[in-house]
Amino acid sequence: MTQTDILSSEQEDLRLLRESVRTLFERAGGSDRARQLRDAGGGFDPEMVRELAEAGVFGVAVPEDQGGLGMGLAAGGVIAEEVGRVIAPEPVVSTIGLSLGLLRRLCPDHPKMAQLIGGEISLAVAWQERGPDGAPADATCRYADGKLTGGKAWVVGAIGSHGFLVVAEQDDGPVLVLAEADAQGLVIDKRTQADGSSLGELSFSGTPAAELASSGAVLTALAEAVADATALAAAELVGLSERAFEITLDYIKTREQFDKPIGSFQVIQHRAVDLNVMCEVAQAGVREALAQMDSETDPKVRAPIASRAKARAVTAAKKITRDAIQLHGAVGYTDEFDIGLYLNRALVLSAWLGDDAYHRRIWFEAREAEGAAQ
Amino acid sequence: MTDWNAMTDAEFRKEVRQFFEAEYPEELRHLPHRPKFAEIEHWHRKLHAKGWVAPAWPAEFGGMGLNAAKLLIFYEEQQRWGVNRGRDMGVQMVGPLIIKFGTQEQKDYWLPRILSCEDIWCQGYSEPGAGSDLANLRTRAEIDGDDFVINGQKIWTTMAHDATHIFMLVRTDPDAPKKQQGISFLLAPMDQPGVEVRTITTLSGETEFCEVFFDNARTSRENLVGELNKGWTMAKALLSFERIFIGSPSLAQNALGQLESFARGRGAFDDPVFRDRFAQAALDVEDHAALYARFADQLKRGETLGADVSMLKIWVTECFQRITELMIEAAGPDGGSIGPLQVGNVSVDVLASFYKARPTTIYGGSNEIQRNILSKAVLGLPG
């Protein structure tokens, strides 16, 4: 390989972080673990969550004075890439980006912060709602007299979580509340996804919940947390794409037809190069975006940067995982080969928080708005 | 003499920018064609007086002596302001080769003439049967007394009709066991009976490419650079910096800027399909720039670039072509018209951009050749 070692250009602290997370996942069994957990019913491993916490994973973007590492989203992206490489089902990005993203902005002194950082619990964030036509709709879930009524949809990590951070409406505006997983009147409908994980569809009927924060700050913090999670999901897709490409490259070097490795055929070689280039562009673009988000405070600027990252990562992951199946040939279509796990995970991560077409639109609209403002 | 490398990047950028903005003639900005020397002579004289003709050459030979970081900044500013590279084959290709492999006499004689453009150079590499497979070249040079006698044909020789000299790869040992061996690097004057130049009219109607025919043309044996039969390795040694330069984002960035003003003027952004395709192109350019920055950082740290740098060229040239397709699309019924189209206060030559984008995937090693290189040198694929 004459390719430059990518790790060498990374800052020393990020490099060490990457190595420790990679080692942790590899010791635990790499992508085999993802298959085992899927076959066991599609959950995640709470013991793994605790080990990740010990490595400082969940508090990576939480400021030091709030009990985190204060390393920012760039470091979160390093972790997310490693999660993507082994398609780990643990709620890493949703915890760093969404649950801790909300709590650290709205109630940094809440005891759940320390528990989340310590990996003792996980909390799922319920913020989207489904309209009558099945598409995303405005929030109507009500919070009054300490109780929730209504529903929430597309809740990532709902199964296995200890509670829900719910964004709801009360008389004087938006509110963030905490509902325990076993609260009265909470029904969780499970929707299985391509990778075996589940999305929760929650319905509340007079479900008791504790208020954490209220007023317009809730929506501001939500938008920020969603932007963070979007960019981190992009990084997870980058890691996933890189590994899917490596698996495919190994395969075309060893699979023989017409008495030669299929990777000796020029048509296969050129496709492999295109996937490699796509991967490198995605990695560079997403890493740059995360670094920019760390140096920007204006939410209006940060959100389109996150969109740029997700648009690129989904475009790349789509192309790479689909072509990876084609390059594997018939065995790529079987469940036995790992490459399918990567395709299935990519489907889920692409749909979560908006796909490439959606984020190009958001990015373009923000660019137009900025142009009009100038 | 100024030590440019001692300046901060920002100071140096400012210095370069100020000079270009103050001194470069407005009518020569973003020239859509390659100029003949007469057209840019005035600018070349200014550059020469300033000592900025050869930014990459060591100061002892009359260059600026820039390190890689400063050189990138110089080129970025040059492209940003649309400063024409001029007739720079001498500076970019022959000069560095003479500096590296030439004799003291060759350095003393040729280098000042390159800087002053007293000699204007063209590159004689490709032949009808030696394009992507350059080592297949057949133009012969045989020793005859104090001269080499040259017979054969070169093609795609850019601006040969406006050059005084040609530097060429020629076959000096037809019996060498490998075709890469037996090739030498020769300098030859164009103004002699045995050299005939014919221009080639391109798709866009320009005549910047030529065919050059050699029929017992002569050049002195003193004009052999480096050792006999070692030309191939020497020519290859030159290419490493060029490979990041050829993948720089500027061509696509400039085209995107033109596309945006043109499309806005034409109301193309009212169409959501066009909006999405524009956003794709704009993000393709932006994310390419991020990858370019990664390679540029490596250079700035003094590291050598690997073969993987070729991916920049593949991505940016194909992206450039997609952008020019969008320009044609935005032009609607004007999409087949030659010449500038006026939209509000901007004037965009849609087809000039389109034609300019076509050869970018062919020259400098076609994108298919680049993919061959990447698949073997970077991905380690067999065969």
TrEMBL record, chain A:
Keyword RNA-binding annotated: no
- Which InterPro entries has this protein been placed in? Acyl-CoA_Oxase/DH_mid-dom_sf, AcylCo_DH-like_C, AcylCo_DH/oxidase_C, AcylCoA_DH/ox_N, AcylCoA_DH/ox_N_sf, AcylCoA_DH/oxidase_NM_dom_sf
GO molecular function of the protein, one example? flavin adenine dinucleotide binding
- Please report the name of this protein according to its UniProt entry: Acyl-CoA dehydrogenase
Per the database record, which ranges form the Acyl-CoA dehydrogenase/oxidase C-terminal domain? 231-362
What Gene3D superfamilies does its record include?
Acyl-CoA dehydrogenase/oxidase, N-terminal domain, Butyryl-CoA Dehydrogenase, subunit A, domain 2, Butyryl-CoA Dehydrogenase, subunit A, domain 3
Q: Which residues form a coiled coil?
A: none
| Family per similarity comment | Belongs to the acyl-CoA dehydrogenase family.
Signal peptide, first to last residue? none
The species this protein was found in: Thalassovita litoralis
Cofactor list: FAD
* Domain Acyl-CoA dehydrogenase/oxidase N-terminal intervals: 12-94
Q: Which PANTHER family match?
A: ACYL-COA DEHYDROGENASE, ACYL-COA DEHYDROGENASE FADE28
Alphabetical UniProt keywords: FAD, Flavoprotein, Oxidoreductase
Pfam families per the UniProt record, alphabetical = Acyl-CoA_dh_1, Acyl-CoA_dh_N
